[in-house]
Design brief:
single chain, alpha+beta, nine-stranded mixed beta sheet, four-stranded antiparallel beta sheet, 20 helices
Length: 569
């Protein structure tokens, strides 16, 4: 707070104190090829020893000299000081800190023409408030300092020059967003495609869950298998499509008891009917690898790359997997082996009534010595858990073969049930150590391209991680279906802007984590104060990353000292 107080009263108190008390003075310091100006205070410590401390860094002297606004303020202060030995400055307001860094996201917002789209939606919905400003404020707060809508309302003075919004307008905006979610997706898809060079030849799809701290279910919130481990609370299922750069294409919400394999059909409809794409490869993990899903992808004219369940494949294919012939080595050191082979595979899909469809696939099998060590260690942990269960058989309550129970088998002795280690299951599992399989219907891609495409699935996993942590989709503070759906539209818009900014920074060869980007944008502030009816904005320091971000988006930085009329944005 001391720093801010000195900062707020700088233009008056610094020079007054300098003239009268000789307690503060201006100091020039040299760093590399530049000279910097500082305000320094002299004082004596408890032992009477003279000390000094830097109260404020004014910036580079050469820039300050060229800044006419700064020079004007200094001249005015000098004029006041010359009138009296100890003048009084009663018309200087306290300063408040306001953020202008959000202008970075505002530029992307306008590049996507979200302002125009939301204005059109407002007219169609007959809303009598500024829908675009309301949505933009929620998205910006979600990106920079996530909080409830009540918190957004209470925090409105944090940002420079964003119109204030009534609290009930935030909630009404969520209702409207839920109604126009598909229109927004369509507009953003085609704008992304034309302006931001969206590449959709390979699309990643995955599913996660978001839970509510509630046991009240409805048509959307339901109990189901939770990926957060929150099995005693209702949830919703969230399916997300992203492109090769990790940018979101679209999403769907499903009731919380929906099995993830059942969500794919809606995603395919979005790609096929709404976005009119005719050449797409869907990349997904094992959770979506069912024969019906794979046929569904092919029936829609797309191809797929999915993780294979090697242990469920026919025995003749498994035999070929373990044969040494046909493997290509990428690494062959004794401590680091990585090899792969391709097997032509006819994936037979039962359609009922005795009819069978055949999917022509390539099964690409990889072996990694590093993965083998990990698989062995993972299995040993399960065996240890199984032995613990054998010592406490009362803990063996469920018939599901999960965790340590995977390696237990049930036997009967004297009409009593007992358990023992399933050595055959352990031996079978050990055979697959280090092996991994990928199935693809795209037979024109090379094996390496398929492996690379599947390994890029981490981008969607990262997307979920960002949405669940940095963007804080949770906690969800809404309880009606419309508000929940509108909340996810806000999250989607915020996520789209963040990933687009990250893509632009990568393109400009600027390396920065999303956390660093958020911290930097949050540090782009003005100290705003008034003097004799004029508002002044003094820019605070924000570091080199901020300068790189502004340059990448071609946003001119504000001057060190400006009036609102002088700002270029």
């Amino acid at each position: 707070m001391f720093y801010i107080d000195v900062f707020m009263h700088f233009f008056l108190d610094i020079f007054t104190t300098f003239v009268v008390y000789i307690a503060m003075y201006l100091k020039k310091t040299r760093s590399k090829q530049y000279t910097y100006l500082q305000v320094v205070e002299s004082y004596r410590d408890d032992n009477g020893v003279p000390r000094h401390k830097v109260l404020f860094n004014l910036g580079r002297l050469d820039i300050l000299k060229k800044d006419p606004s700064f020079a004007t303020v200094i001249d005015k202060i000098r004029e006041e000081i010359s009138e009296s030995t100890k003048p009084e400055f009663k018309d200087i307001s306290d300063a408040d800190i306001v953020n202008w860094g959000y202008k970075i996201y505002e530029k992307l917002w306008k590049m996507f023409e979200l302002d125009k789209t939301l204005d059109d939606i407002q007219k169609n919905s007959k809303a009598r408030f500024d829908l675009q400003s309301s949505c933009f404020r929620m998205v910006i707060e979600h990106l920079l300092e996530p909080k409830s809508k009540l918190g957004v309302y209470a925090n409105q003075n944090r940002y420079y020059n964003i119109p204030e919004v009534e609290l009930h307008h935030f909630y009404r905006s969520l209702d409207i967003l839920s109604e126009y979610k598909e229109l927004l997706e369509d507009k953003l898809f085609y704008k992304n495609f034309s302006v931001f060079n969206l590449k959709v030849d390979i699309v990643f799809y995955d599913v996660t869950t978001f839970y509510f701290e509630s046991v009240r279910s409805d048509s959307l919130r339901e109990f189901g298998f939770s990926k957060d481990g929150k099995f005693n609370e209702v949830q919703i299922v969230f399916g997300l499509l992203v492109d090769m750069e990790g940018r979101p294409i679209g999403y769907e919400l499903f009731p919380g008891n929906t099995f993830e394999g059942k969500t794919l059909e809606k995603a395919l409809f979005k790609l096929n009917e709404r976005f009119n794409l005719n050449k797409v490869i869907i990349v997904a993990d094992r959770g979506l690898n069912s024969k019906i899903n794979l046929k569904l992808i092919k029936d829609n004219g797309f191809d797929y790359i999915v993780a294979s369940r090697l242990k469920s494949l026919p025995s003749d294919i498994q035999s070929e997997i373990f044969m040494d012939e046909g493997y290509n080595f990428i690494k062959s050191d004794e401590e680091d082996i990585f090899k792969y082979k391709s097997i032509d595979y006819k994936n037979k899909v039962s359609l009922g009534n005795g009819s069978v469809a055949v999917l022509d696939e390539k099964l690409i099998v990889t072996y990694s010595s590093k993965r083998s060590k990990k698989d062995k260690a993972d299995r040993q942990r399960l065996i240890d858990k199984a032995n613990h269960l054998l010592e406490n058989e009362s803990l063996i309550k469920s018939s599901f073969k999960r965790g340590g129970k995977k390696f237990l088998k049930e036997e009967s002795s004297n009409k009593e049930k007992c358990y023992k280690l399933d050595e055959a299951a352990i031996e079978k599992d050990e055979r697959f150590d280090g092996y991994y399989g990928i199935q693809t219907s795209e037979t024109n891609l090379s094996e390496i391209d398929v492996i690379d495409a599947y390994h890029n699935l981490w981008k969607i996993e990262e997307s979920f991680r960002i949405m669940k942590s940095k963007l804080e989709v949770r906690p969800i503070f809404h309880w009606t279906e419309k508000r929940i759906k509108g909340h996810f539209v806000v999250c989607f818009l915020a996520f789209l802007l963040e990933r687009t900014l990250e893509h632009k920074l990568r393109t400009a060869d600027i390396k920065a984590s999303s956390r660093d980007v958020r911290s930097t944008i949050n540090s782009m502030n003005f100290a705003r104060f008034e003097s004799k009816g004029q508002t002044y904005l003094l820019k605070t320091k924000f570091g080199s990353l901020g300068s790189h971000i502004l340059r990448a988006l071609r946003i001119p930085p504000p001057k060190n000292l400006s009036t609102p009329d002088e700002l270029k944005f």
